[in-house]
Amino acid sequence: MNHQYAVAVHILSLLDHQPASSSEELAGSVGVHPVVIRTVTGLLRRAGLLETRRGVPGARLARPPREITLLDVYRAVNAPEQMLKHHPRPNVACPVGANIQAVLDATSRRAQDALEAELAAHSLGDVLGDLQTRIEQMSAPTAD
Fold first, then answer.
1. Rounded to whole angstroms, how far apart are CA atoms 126 and 138?
2. Which residues contact 66 (CB under 8 A, 6 or more apart)?
3. 83, 71, 74: which is closest to 121 by C-alpha?
4. Which of 9, 13, 52, 58 fits a disulfide with 20 by CB distance 3.0 to 4.6 angstroms?
């Protein structure tokens, strides 16, 4: 997966807590330059996952977190259509080189389908719930 997917999920998670965050504030949490934030938020906005208003800083989720699947986010950031890439120029004069692409294509398609099914089965709401649990565990006093 490209890094924009992780950045996008991070941004959406932050915006659920702080709807009016600037790209500089978001960049501080994500650990990237504000230009990366603006690029990714532009992709999320075009995909209908974020809303922005002229003259108002920041952005907010366009839909409730439970209605945004991780597959929506994956597709919004122009993730590759296929995760498993093949080498581009096998030697077609070689029997293996001439046939390897066809042999690997079916497996690659099944792997891609499984990835997309898994992402479709989970929402931003699931991510936020898991984040909340981890944050609470971090702040819980330890028993000595």
1. 19
2. 123, 124, 125
3. 71
4. 58
Q: Is the pTM of this model over 0.85?
A: no
Strand partners, 61: 50
- Give all domains of the chain, ordered by start, each with its CATH number: 3-139 (1.10.10.10)
| Residues 13, 18, 23, 26, CA torsion sign | negative
Statement: residue 119 has pLDDT above 90: yes
CA dist., res. 32 & res. 36, Å (int): 6
Task: Dump the DSSP string for 92-126.
Answer: TTSHHHHHHHHHHHHHHHHHHHHHHHHHHT-BHHH
